[in-house]
Amino acid sequence: MMAEKGGYKHFMHKEIHEQPRAIADTLRGRMLLTEGDVHFETWNLTQEQVQTFTKVTILACGTSWHSGVAGKHMIESLARLPVEVELASEFRYRDPIVEKSHLVIAISQSGETADTLAAFKEAKRLGAHTMAICNVIGSAMTREANLHVLTNAGPEIGVASTKAFTTQLVTLYLLAVKLGRMRGTLSVEGAQEHLTHLTQVPKMIEDVLKCEPQVKRVAREFMNAQDFLFLGRGPMHPVALEGALKLKEISYIHAEGYAGGEMKHGPIALIDEKMPVVVIAPKQPHIAYEKIIGNIEEVRARGGKVIAILDEDDNQADTLADHVIRIPAACALLAPVVATIPLQLLAYHVAEMRGNDVDQPRNLAKSVTVE
Ligand code: G6P
Can you give the residue ranges of the SIS domain (predicted)? Predict the structure, then answer.
């Protein structure tokens, strides 16, 4: 069993460390740098079809829903198509508006989640073009879809999703570039620039994994906390949601992810000296850096403990935080991939230190095939 885990104690830990390789596999053969284009093996949409799309609807659950929220930022920014991200379990019970000009994308690691599959079938019945982004080849969603794109993360055993999430993000980025080129919102040079950023991601993930000893120290200090708050703005908002979900799934500590600007509308009331707040604040123009720094100050003023995720060269915010975890600077839309890694490690180490069954947390299943 230890051999299957490659020397790691848990599959989740192994899968966290597999991410540089998994992401390289997601990218392999798909980036056409010279042409400034993306090649998906199964792609079957014509330029005319893509140009008639008026909206993208993303359907997903759990961690996959978080990658959908990040994907919204990517597709809206690069392809200038409005994107709505729907919880699959809500979508089908509320007479959704679906038209033939809509592209409906299901995101699912397993390709079998009952709520996502049912919502996806409903969207197809209503006449939308359907695309599945899945990790499991031959899964129900890939069979149901007009078009499917595989994330190629390799099998994910740990119930808490890690490499499936980051490979979904990278796949969505590739898709945003592809749609941008086909819709004419991205030039060849623009696409080349985005693809060049993508080629750097596996190495960046290798580098960010080196923060593990520091994350472990943070985990030890806060392993007995009762609550955690995660804050992020813009593309870092879904990272905050995912950081909170990872922690609650395996450590059983109550955690909430919030968009930084919403803190004053509620969570600020919870902050006291017992409350660790993870602030995800890479220095990117889109991420309203100054505003998130304002959030750090608000937390500190109320005695809360700040764990800040900052770019490696950020010397402005580090004096404000109680703990700083540094990540390599990535462009705004790819920073979620990099910034997620320390949060996965934090959840893992807190759960491990608490003696929990990390790979099989109580009450959760890897694939939920009941509605
Ligand atoms: C379960 C898993 C989560 C996962 C969610 C959606 O709740 O425990 O890790 O994010 O299902 O799964 P999917 O396979 O559709 O991505």
Answer: 46-185, 218-361
Cβ pair 170, 198 in contact under 8 A: yes
295 ligand 1 Cβ < 6 A: no
ipTM above 0.90 for this complex: yes
The pLDDT tens digits for 166-218 are 999 999 999 999 999 999 999 999 999 999 999 999 999 999 999 999 999 99
Measured from the Cβ of residue 226, the count of other Cβ atoms closer than 10 Å reads: 9
How far, in Å, from the CA of 89 to the mean position of ligand 1? 12
Q: 11, 107, 110: which to mutate for ligand 1, most atoms within 8 A of CB?
A: 110
- Rounded CA gap, 167 and 273, in Å? 36
Q: Are 180 and 37 in contact (CB under 8 A)?
A: no
Q: Check if 162 has its Cβ closer than 6 Å to any atom of ligand 1.
A: no
Q: Is the pTM of this model over 0.95?
A: yes
DSSP secondary-structure letter at 315?
A: -
Q: What local confidence, expressed as pLDDT, does residue 199 receive?
A: 97
User: Would you call 93 helix, strand, or coil by DSSP?
Assistant: coil
Q: Give residue 110 CA to ligand 1 midpoint distance, Å.
A: 7
Structure tokens at 289: 């850096």
Mutate which of 85, 248, 367 for ligand 1? The one with the most ligand atoms within 8 Å of its CB, which is: 367
Q: What angle do CA 363, 120, 123 make, to 5 degrees?
A: 145
Edge-to-edge strand list for the sheet holding 227-232: 254-259, 227-232, 276-280, 305-311, 323-327
- Contact status, residue 53 vs residue 103, Cβ threshold 8 Å: yes
d(CA 238, CA 35): 31
366 carries an active-site annotation: yes
> For residue 10, which phi and psi values (nearest 5 degrees)?
-135, 150
| CA torsion, ordered 180, 183, 185, 191, to nearest 10 deg | 40
Compute CA distances 299 → 185, 230, 273, 296, whole Å: 40, 12, 9, 5
The tokens describing 190, both together, are: 């623009």
